[in-house]
Amino acid sequence: MCGIIGYLGKNEKKEILLDGLQELEYRGYDSAGIAIIENKQLKNFKAVGRLKNLREKTKDYESVGFGVSIGHTRWATHGKPTELNAHPHMGAYSFVVHNGIIENYQELKKELQTDGVKFLSQTDTETIVHLFEKNHNINNNPWQSFQDTIAKLDGAYATLLITEADEETIYFAKNGSPMLIGFNESDVYFASSDTPIIGKATEVYYLEDGEFGYAKDGKVFLFDANGEKTFSKQALATDKAMAQKDGYRFFMEKEIYEQSQVMNDTMMGRVLEDKIDFEELDKNLFDNISNIKICACGTSYHSALTASYLFERIAKIPCQVEIASEFRYKEPLLREDTLFITISQSGETADTLEALKMAKRAGLRSLSICNVDNSSIVRESDAAVLTRAGIEKGVASTKAFATQTMVLWMLAIYVAQAKKTIDSELLKEELNAMRQTPKSLLINDSIHPKMTRLSKRYLHGHGFFFIGRDLFFPLALEGALKLKEISYLHAEGYPSGEMKHGPIALADAELFTVALMPKSLHYEKIKSNVEELCARDATVLAISPEPFDLADDYVKTTYDSHPMLEFFEMMVVTQLLALEISVRLGNDVDMPRNLAKSVTVE
Question: Is 235's pLDDT higher than 70?
């Protein structure tokens, strides 16, 4: 999703902006731009496509001395990816960058056009800068003009504005989209996430919804609806190692290999000798809770589906899973005995955040599972459990899915402990399996080369079915999603028992079926389902600890003592398969077309 960077100070601004935008590339974008006011002169540069195009445009420009500056990577929402639609957007003497959506922009635009304002772009963002200048032309007061502008905006926004009318100030506002302020002596930074300012700022403040203000002379003046407010800074991490490729070809590849390590981090202090413990959760969180509803999107939705089996099987508590973008419009029946769980890698997923707000308005207790502390969803929730996956730069999520699923597995046992629905023997089995999970995520020397060799057989045909039963149905959905995201090949996840209820009509030699065949869960049932496909000449890739003679290709897995160990090992195989097919097709694995990392619009 769109990324913001801003800087006020005496250092060379172009490189600070470009380096910051480089760190935001993982969010997905189709154009980029920067604007700088220096020596009372406003300069701006924009380019469509990758950041290297913007670097080329600015190669002969250097900023020296004190100035203010803003930059942006855009993921198109209103208007096509063109240079005119790229941020920063310009008025007569001001520039603005903005993340989110201004819901009443058409109304504002018509009002401004009636006043004679000519718009250059198709975006909602351009209304902000023209509205500011309209106000300023009336009152000749930049700060009042900015406040009047923000007051008229409906929707989600994180915005920075600079103007020749006040050339040493950056104006900012935040509502619904993430933004933070970084500090280092007299330098002030703005960004939509930590990454661009790590190594530059030493302290940080995470803006809350409804906060706005301005930065001038190395100081930040912060306001909300009640007037000026004081704020406390916190230390900013300085280690960028997790955000680098470390010799891997792609961030996604690195993140697949990291899963064993980060799983240890996820479990640390939580998987104890004889129980699961979350010190961040209030012991009373589950009091009088007799139902769980989980809301999520995309990959997080698949981890939620997996959890629904675990909550009902282990904790003996009803669990429903909702797609956040649908939940908001179905007029859901929400009962106060329901714990509302939201899952999001970024903590900024717009649909999930709005579903959470709806649940809170209905009086439900809320718990978020997230990878980013201080994110919007974490701050909005009554309680939060962090997945501790570290920075995930690949747009197609891997380690976030693994760690979300582990947190939910632990949470199912935690609830079972609280409600006394798990006996000591089952608890011991679950804890032992958890301790082995990091080993199940290790990639041995033979599996990756095998997936590289196999990938050449799966480049054509009319599509893929990933099939599984029980816990492995959500994994089939996730395997299909990974493949379609980065290879652009058609893929579906399906419950294996449902194939004969329609989809088997597609079966022929050009239909590729990836069969998840765990030994520990319904093996004979799924074997029968796969045999039905083989009888209709489908091409089958079997993933199982048990050899399957009818399969065209077979990947042998190691763990067969517990379904979740098989789950995680097979998850890695499907991730590597998607990766290697995509590489062989020549695609950009980390930044697949049309996708964004943090989806902050509906």
Answer: yes
